[in-house]
Protein 1
Amino acid sequence: MAAMRIAVTGASGLIGSALVRSLAADGHEVVRLVRRVPAADGEVRWNPTAGTVDTAGLSGCEAIVHLAGAGVGDRRWTTARKKVLVASRVRGTDAIARAAASLDTPPRVLVCGSAIGYYGDTGDAWVDEDSPAGEGFLARLVQDWEAAAEPAHAAGVRTAYARTGLVVSGRGGAWGRLFPIFRAGLGGRLGNGRQYWSFISLRDQVAALRHLVDTDGLSGPVNLTAPEPLTNREVTAAMGRVLRRPAIAAVPAPALRIALGEFASDVLGSQRVRPKRLLDSGFVFALPDIDQAIRAALEE
């Protein structure tokens, strides 16, 4: 596809920085939305808490990829932290959607970060984009998060929600914390290990986001997960196998609840997600296998 001017929020994060590198390498002009005073060409200021965006800086953008948001697993879910999580996603998305809608020439597509937490704990049952929302704080948050993009959709901007699973990367995110533990030979299953983890390699995550930008007609929720989710026990075995370290330790569910509080329910929960719409649209995974994804993460 011809080079485009593309705005990205969350450009300094794990996924955002990888996406920016990929886009720039292919000759696209990337506009980075930053919270501070812009210090370089290609930076545009916004304030997701206040709901303000320098819309002049978005002029000419054909696409916006909105990935900004406070880390869900970074801290315990206190009442104050929940407010931060909601504000960073819902207010931020509303600000971006309204800014896109207000432009004289709106972007043709808005790709909003989202999460498979939408489905809640699904046990052994498969779910796809047609499945209903689950229960719990995270499921409610994702529903509000996606709904906040409505102003862009109402203005005729093709809007896609990238419901992302666990991104396999050594650079950051939840998986980034696992690598040091497993390298030390202290890795093991969480709880009973039977809960499904719907993962995706960082390489496929970036490729899938670009696929959402490039594929006309692809809108609404799209699951960004590898085709075959694995149980936590199977993931643990793969980490030990690839890293050549024992992976026999286990963290009991009660210990996780003490350490993580309410978030432990999501860590111990099971989400067996199928990326139906992504596959139906012709996307081909480069690293669908967990061993491949882990090895690629080691080379990042």
Note: The domain at 5-298 is CATH 3.40.50.720 (Rossmann fold).
Protein 2
Amino acid sequence: MSAIFGEILRFGQSKGPEISLKVFGDEHYARYEDMNGYSAIYDDELGVFCYARLSAGSFRSTGTPLSEPVPEGLVRHLQESQETIVARAGARKLRRAAMAGGQREAEVVRTVGPNQGLLEGRVLSIGTVKGLTILVNFQDLASTVTRPDVEEMLNGANYNRNGNICSAREYFDRVSSGKLKYTNFVAGPYTLSRNREFYVNNLLVEEALRLAVADGLNLKQFDSRNENIIDALNIMYAGQTQYRGELWPHNWHIDLRFGTMRTDLYLLTSLGRTPADLSIGTFCHENGHLLCRFPDMYDYGERDGDSVKSAGIGSYCLMGSGNHNDNGLSPSPVCAYLRDLAGWCDNEIDLKTAANHQARQGDYNTVLKYRTSKPNEYFLVENRSRMGLDRGLRVRSEFCVSSL
């Protein structure tokens, strides 16, 4: 899942020009505002974003496009009731589970138990993994990004195009201290059967994979464990990221069968309009879920039962909002807590017993812990300076202490 906390993003409209909106939320529930703070909702009949009004705690379209004057009496920053938000988020999860091939229960993250804080499922955080990335265009929208462009972004050496700090392969190699060797085979681009707007409410993953298989692709090459499971299925669609419906960047389960091979987890994100749009941030974040089973390090209003969303660890971790640092060009490293769970840290320093120890920026192979007298509670210390993978942080330097 990729969360947005007030960023200004561009959206397509089937019967109008692209529009800029401020976004708050995630793939399960999101709220949109125009640049003046008026809440907006997409009107399917009109094919454009319109001003939203409240009716019994839920948004309804006023029928007035955002390009027109504000309807009389409308106030800024309207929000739906908490009951509506919870109901809409629950309905989206059930809908996605049904589209993905089964009524999968919501994932629960527990720091004590068999997964020790990771999500359930296959963990591929150590070893050599070859992912499959499929590029797709829509009937009404194509990208000028080529297969070689994406191959370079995912697999390149010393990659810095458009200001990216490295390729996705280099990112995971660095933060795992060489323990995860992750490359991708890129297929396509293929053209889907419908316009982009259709796929806001219809998942495009199966159609994209069938196009690749029909093109002669051998899926067995993406099964590193010899379990007849595609390790990593990534779909990238043409155009700017659409933070709406099934086009919101996300990672989820899908059960598809192709001979002896089957799917497990997939990633969906955008390809961009031109090569200048390519950035590694969201791809790395969603593959953190897909490969390593990292949870999101922000609160989308469910973990404590209070329905209050927060940025959590924020920009200090790839799995918080750190994938958006520097517009996705310099995603934060995976935080020490998750690196430790992934088995990426060979050196554990017990700060309660160790002599003086220096916390070094960029030492991803070391975890510094201060254990308390309480069961399962400890503090982690990191040196986070604005350099290397942390160059996109908003502060110059800082010691980051987290407790668990």
Note: The helical segments are 82-99, 147-155, 168-175, 205-214, 281-292, 336-342.
Protein 3
Amino acid sequence: MDDYVWASGVATDLVNTAPEVWHGEDHLPDLASLVAFAELHGIESLACRAADLRAVHELRVSVRELIDHPERDRLVDGASALTSPAGALTLVTDIGRTRWAVSLRPDASVSDALALTCGIGILGVVQVLGAERFRACGAPTCQGAFIDTTRPGRRRYCMPGLCGNRVNVANHRARRAEARLRPGTR
């Protein structure tokens, strides 16, 4: 697994299912929502048990703590801890290049797969882009967080289509209200 962009996206999506992001509504409240989340992110065909839901909620808190406190050593240690119990790390040679490959244990659960994915995403971003890519959402009413994997590194919102749009609409309305208050404008 060397697609850290996809994996860090899964980590971002996971932390943004938390109740504090959605003003009290948990977006992973039950096993059905966990199964849907796993399938949406290509993590399928693993059994989902009640213990997995609790483990994923704990994982969500752990990943959020890493994003909220992005010191390089802390990120590496935390992400390594996420990956260590979930799978096996090997060196693979493909078409003349050597790379690391990670595979899940045969008895792995969906929480193991998500932990491994989040850990790989965090480690990849730290290595390739740096610790400054871990951020809180820039929308004033949002408590979300994200890992910025964009080329220029200027992402501002955890969910650009939602938070970014809300900020843009609020700014547009404020400009229109200000224009109405100025003399000589409509």
Note: The CA atoms of residues 139 and 163 lie 6 Å apart.
